[in-house]
Amino acid sequence: MRLPIAALALPVAVQAANYSGPLRPQVHFSPPSDFMNDPNGLFYDAKRDLYHLYYQWNPYELIAGNQHWGHATSRDLYHWTNHPPAISPSNADEYIFSGSAVLDRNNTSGFFPDQDDGVVAIYTLDTAEAQTQNIAYSTDGGYTFTKYTHNPVIDINSTEFRDPQVTWHAESEQWLMTVAYSADKVIGFYTSPDLRDWTHASNFSRADLRGEQFECPNLVKFAADKHVLFISVNPGAPLGGSGTYYLVGNFNGTHFHPETANFTLYEFSKDNYASQWYTDLPDRSSPISIGWASNWDYAEEVPTGELEDWRSSMSVPRQHSLTQVQGVWTVTRSPYDLSAVQGRRLPNHNHTDGVSVDFSSVQSKAIYFEIDISGLPADPAGEVRFHFSSPAGDHLDGGVVLDTGLFWIDRAGTQLYTAANNTDFTPLSNTSVAVDGGLAFAGVIDRSVLEVFADDGTQSATVSYFPSAPLDRLAVGARGLSDGANVGLAAWGLDSGWVV
Ligand code: FRU
User: Fold this and answer.
1) What pLDDT does 165 receive?
2) For 396-411, what is each residue's pLDDT tens digit?
3) How far is the CA of 161 from the centre of ligand 1 (A)?
4) Are 302 and 362 in the same domain?
5) What pLDDT band is residue 225 in, cutting at 50, 70 and 90?
6) Which residue among 335, 353, 369 closes a domain?
């Protein structure tokens, strides 16, 4: 239910910013200025019908440091309002690292004697001496927080212990914290009746996941009565720098048991890290996540900094389900309901060698597109390519080779920043998709971020790229397809989520 505006009655401070730069994503969240990394504290406030997004923010510089919890809110996850930082360091020697936030409806914490909408944030306090878990509470719906006077709530005398994700474990009626012993590559589980006193429940270790440190774990319950443990690793992830794995299993209130020895790399590209899942969603909602659309290999040097005074955006909000692919439970993902920003269907232009859409008249230069290949024989031949281009000669390419199912995306043609600037900015993302009489994939392209969803949403890529002028044309072409094969393109302009 949406409350009338008057019922909100909150003295909400709004922070103005300029979102007009040609590299600024229009349907992806990016910070008002300076450097952003992980999403933090994602919770949905049903009372006010409002999604909160906090994030790691250095409000003073274009590189990581001075970590605060930046803050924004949205009713639809695409139109965001920026607010002043929600949690700030108390002195220059401490940093407010990543964490989560929960609604404490039943006042289990005792911080909220007179209300059923108190918010508790659980974060890592980082200092030169230690990383400890701390809490802060908000009586105004998540805009301002008071740090608990008896912090830290967990201190194990470690400098590598961070990123608490807290959820309510309904079956055992207690709070559950999932947290990383980062350098040990171990995930810890703690339980608490009140968010203040925490008891260690178990550890889960997976030293065989490639990468040096574990960060930002999230344990997510799916409707299939299964839990999925997402673990971000950095540096040394399989595609270089930072990346995220997930494992499907069961959680019994104290221990996580993976169903199989399998683990899956969440994406086949380099730019999706530290995803967080919304808490307090309405019961029947599918899980919703937002990830950081960058990579520690180059996040602090991409050209949006010098040119437009900001660095890094988030992924689009994604909705998820679990499905079986050849007997293996797999997480699906797709953009969360785009209707809040979806504009007009763009006309297709047919050419002898394919079909194109011109989106130069779409003010945001952001579009949603679907490409559908059908009518293929059992042994398909040929390939289909998609090609985004700008009037300045930039291009971003991709395609699928039909006999092998090789699906690729290549960002080498976007000219402002390439592997020549930083060899870790590798151009190619590859995977293999199922080609079974046909295939379909969809994507959102948004000035400097492309997200592609393939294989019925069981595979995805987030690709940051930096053109010298916005890409504004999409051409889809085919070569060597068998008779009867068909390639369809449908694209819609997207409206900006920012008032610029
Ligand atoms: C992951 C991370 C977290 C940490 C935060 C600091 O990107 O390194 O482990 O809490 O960033 O900004």
Assistant:
1) 98
2) 999 999 999 999 999 9
3) 11
4) no
5) confident
6) 335
> Does residue 283 sit in the same domain as residue 346?
no
Residue from 376, 442, 445 nearest 405 by CA: 376
> Which domain CATH number covers 296?
2.115.10.20
SS3 442: strand
Residue 274: which H helix or E strand, with range? strand 273-277
Q: Is residue 12 in a domain?
A: no
The pLDDT, as a whole number, for residue 3 is 36
The response to whether residue 124 sits with its C-beta less than 6 Å from ligand 1 reads: yes
Is there a contact between 387 and 411 (Cβ–Cβ < 8 Å)?
no
Describe the strand order of the beta sheet including 310-311 as a list of residue ranges: 80-87, 68-74, 50-58, 34-45, 310-311
Residue 499 has pLDDT above 90, yes or no: no
Please check whether residue 432 lies inside any domain of the structure.
yes
Strand, coil or helix: what is 248? strand
**Ligand 1, atom nearest to 182 Cα:** 9
Q: Give 322-351 pLDDT, tens digit per residue.
A: 999 999 999 999 999 999 999 999 999 999
CB atoms inside a 10 Å sphere around CB 209: 17
pLDDT in tens, 14-35: 888 999 999 999 999 999 999 9
Q: Which residues contact 285 (CB under 8 A, 6 or more apart)?
A: none
Range of the domain at 275: 34-335
Residue from 34, 40, 55, 56 whose mutation best tests the ligand 1 pocket (most atoms within 8 A of CB): 56
Between the CA of 337 and the centroid of ligand 1 the distance, in Å, is 29
Q: Note the Cα 266 to chain centre separation in Å.
A: 11
Ligand 1 neighbour 38 (Cβ under 6 A):
yes
Query: Whole-number mean pLDDT of the chain?
Result: 96
Is 38 assigned a catalytic role? yes
pLDDT in tens, 450-459: 999 999 999 9
Note whether residue 500 is domain-resident. no
Give tens-digit pLDDT for 259-274.
988 899 999 999 999 9
Same domain, 232 and 322: yes
Please provide residue 246's backbone torsions phi and psi, each rounded to the nearest 5 degrees: -140, 150
What's the pLDDT score for residue 11?
Answer: 58
Residues 6+ apart with CB under 8 A from 351: 475
| Residue 208: both structure tokens together | 């065989």
**Domain identity same for 319 and 433:** no
Q: For residues 128 and 254, state if they share a domain.
A: yes
Residue owning tokens 């059908």: 374
Distance between CA atoms of residues 340 and 420, nearest Å:
38
pLDDT level of residue 6 (50, 70, 90 thresholds): very low
Local structure of 207: helix, strand or coil: coil
